[in-house]
Design a protein that fits this description.
- The structure is a single chain.
- By secondary structure, the chain is α/β, with parallel strands linked by helices.
- Helices cover about 30% and strands about 20% of the residues.
- Helix 5 packs across helix 6.
Length: about 425
């Protein structure tokens, strides 16, 4: 049985939560392998809407084991707040497993994230201010605190002391803020120990054994390809590897055990935060996409920047991730346009680029080369098969598939679980 990776093909918010939820009933483990509570998934089940931030989407699938793996950074307060919110709505979270090697977001990471972003002014990245970047920086600087450290107070205290020796200098002398005390950080982190301890496992071993036993493991990426710290639109990216390669390092599952890479791509494009965005619309069409698609961040509530579908980005995602299947979402949002533009290439200083430009400078100055497709006015939210769609919607899907670099396996025509058209089986 396979290990599958599911990632975003654009700048996030493509509908990965819904895609994971649909697969959740067919898999045994759903693994979050990167990021933290700086992004969210929205899952609609019947009349209920669930906004997940730190928890894997598999938490909503009975019989599935949700796993927060080693590549994640965890705000423990947010973790238990989210668990309590789901439990209050009758969702069983008792199967949740947390890696002993995952890093923990300390209070000083959140403080530094916010003050640094304000200090950058016009050069700001667009961070959520939740301490994600500083925690990953601590990890790389070998100053990080891992989940397992909370079970040895002596080690925990020594690590916090070491981290604050430098960070307090920066907070006080650079940002004119109060110093953070070792005692306050240690006390805060230790307050979660009793509740956390039963959840903690060697998740790499757990997942390896599951695969050996013939179980199916779904590795669920946070953020998306163009936000990957190595392969995204740097520096306007997240602090982790959100591409398929990150699924291996973030979970402990080796590459030769991954059978399938599923990329979720929206029928148009959105982005939150700063950074270049070639197809971005600053007109009534952009406002209409935002309104029709309810394009506001699950975690932050920030309005998303909106633009037309970008096939150059889709091809890039297919190449970088080794995509075997695309899942197209939110096709229904495009209903009502007479003509629908699709970006098929870029132009930079009179030169055409059919693939992603090599440099940030060229990408920043890229203007889209559009092809135009006939739209449709029929309500497609009740469609349950590809043949139920209007002819122009079918042609639009097949055109995107042809230019995006991998086959489309399903198409979303609404937010609910049932509003998905299967073009070919994913499992």
């Amino acid at each position: 049985m396979p290990a599958l990776v599911l990632i975003g093909a654009q700048w996030g918010d493509e509908g990965k939560g819904k895609a994971t939820d649909q697969l959740g009933g067919s898999v045994d483990h759903v693994v979050k392998f990167n990021g933290g509570n700086n992004a969210g998934h929205t899952v609609v089940i019947g009349n209920e809407t669930y906004a997940l931030h730190l928890l894997p989407s598999g938490i909503l699938s009975p019989g599935c084991t949700p796993v927060i793996a080693n590549g994640v950074v965890i705000d423990l307060g947010v973790l238990f707040q989210e668990i309590d919110g789901l439990e209050a709505r009758g969702i069983d979270t008792s199967k949740l497993v947390v890696s002993a090697d995952a890093h923990v977001i300390a209070s000083y990471n959140r403080i530094l994230d916010k003050v640094t972003e304000r200090f950058l002014g016009s050069r700001k990245i667009g961070t959520t201010g939740r301490g994600i970047g500083p925690t990953y920086a601590d990890k790389m600087n070998r100053l990080g605190i891992r989940v397992q450290d909370l079970f040895d107070e002596k080690i925990l205290r020594a690590k916090v002391e070491g981290a604050l020796e430098l960070k307090n200098q920066v907070l006080v002398k650079v940002y004119n803020r109060k110093a953070v005390t070792v005692e306050s950080v240690v006390e805060d982190l230790l307050s979660y120990v009793d509740r956390l301890r039963p959840m903690v496992r060697d998740t790499g071993l757990l997942l390896s054994n599951a695969l050996d036993e013939g179980k199916t493991v779904l590795l669920e990426g946070g953020q998306a390809t163009l936000l990957d710290v190595d392969h995204g639109t740097y520096p306007f990216v997240t602090s982790s590897n959100a591409t398929a390669g990150g699924a291996c390092t973030g979970s402990g599952i080796p590459p030769n055990r991954i059978d399938q890479v599923i990329a979720v791509v929206k029928a148009y494009t959105t982005r939150v935060g700063e950074g270049p965005f070639p197809t971005e619309l600053h007109d009534a069409d952009g406002e209409r996409l935002r309104a029709n698609g309810h394009e506001y961040g699950t975690t932050t509530g920030r309005p998303r920047r909106c633009g037309w579908y970008d096939a150059v980005i889709a091809r890039y995602a297919a190449r970088v991730n080794g995509v075997t299947d695309f899942v197209l979402t939110k096709l229904d949002v495009l209903t009502g346009w007479e003509k629908i533009p699709v970006c098929v290439a870029y132009e930079v200083d009179g030169k055409r680029f059919d693939e992603m430009p090599m440099t940030q400078t060229d990408f920043h100055h890229a203007t889209p080369v559009y092809e135009y497709f006939d739209g449709w006015t029929e309500d497609i939210t009740t469609a349950r098969t590809f043949d139920d769609l209007p002819k122009n919607a079918q042609l639009y899907i097949r055109a995107l598939e042809e230019m995006s670099g991998a086959p489309f396996s399903s198409v979303g025509v609404g937010p609910d679980r049932e509003q998905t058209l299967e073009l070919r089986p994913l499992l």
